[in-house]
Amino acid sequence: MAENIRKKIAIIGLGRVGSSLARLLVENGIEFIGGFSSTVESSVKAIKKIQAGRVLSIEELKDADAVFVCVQDRNIEKIAKKISFQDFAFENMTFIHCSGSYGLDVLSPISEKGGEIAVFHPLFPFIDFEFSLANIRGAYVGVEGPEWLYSLAKRLGLVPFSLPKNRGKYHLGAVLSSGLLLSLLSYPEEIAKELGIPVEAYLKLAENAIKGAMNFSIMDSITGPWKRGDDEVIKKHLENCSDPILYSRLLRRIREVLRENKH
């Protein structure tokens, strides 16, 4: 049975991440009291979409037990400094940022005032509000902070794990698994358009390759001419590739992986 989490939660930054998180809180019985974004107009629009809470001023954050900071990475420290100037009972509040590339230190202006600080980084592509709510359950979330945050993650249907100290390398792994992976898929998209075949055919292949990696391992799920030693096929690829240098680098990488993991 999920732990009963009695927290009043506010959110700074009601964009794609913040608004999705707010609605997820509401749908799972957690009290979302409100929040704000960069403008009143965007704040009102977000609250209407979330269907809960109200637009708050920075002073009204004092009514929350926990405040999630869901702003762009470069703005987290600025927000932390603004918060630190407020007349809050900091010792009774937790402030949580949702960046994967920063540690606790970016919230140090708040901790210096006695506030508890934490990190809650969902490994999920917040592409769209409705898409996020429909697909986020089962996603992993990196956590650094009090035990109740781990319980909250489970309550929201997420899988929590403790964040490593090296955030630069951790976040590199995240973008290689999402944005940069999709940039590679833009190549088969170009090929599909050129040949007049459905791009979904290639995307489904990618989806099933990832399913294979999750069910077995990345190594065991690698298929293709590099595994069969079919150099003639690779030669044809290079003749038709719009970026043969990138292909050659990826080929070198996959051969290294196969060689290092040879049974």
Automatic annotation (TrEMBL):
The lineage of its organism: Bacteria, Bacteria division WOR-3. It comes from the Bacteria. It comes from candidate division WOR-3 bacterium. Residues 8-83 form the Pyrroline-5-carboxylate reductase catalytic N-terminal domain. PANTHER family: CONSERVED HYPOTHETICAL ALANINE AND LEUCINE RICH PROTEIN (PTHR40459:SF1). PROSITE patterns: D_2_HYDROXYACID_DH_1 (PS00065). Residues 147-242 form the DUF2520 domain. InterPro entries: 6-PGluconate_DH-like_C_sf, D-isomer_DH_CS1, DUF2520, NAD(P)-bd_dom_sf, P5C_Rdtase_cat_N, TM1727-like_C_sf. This is DUF2520 domain-containing protein.
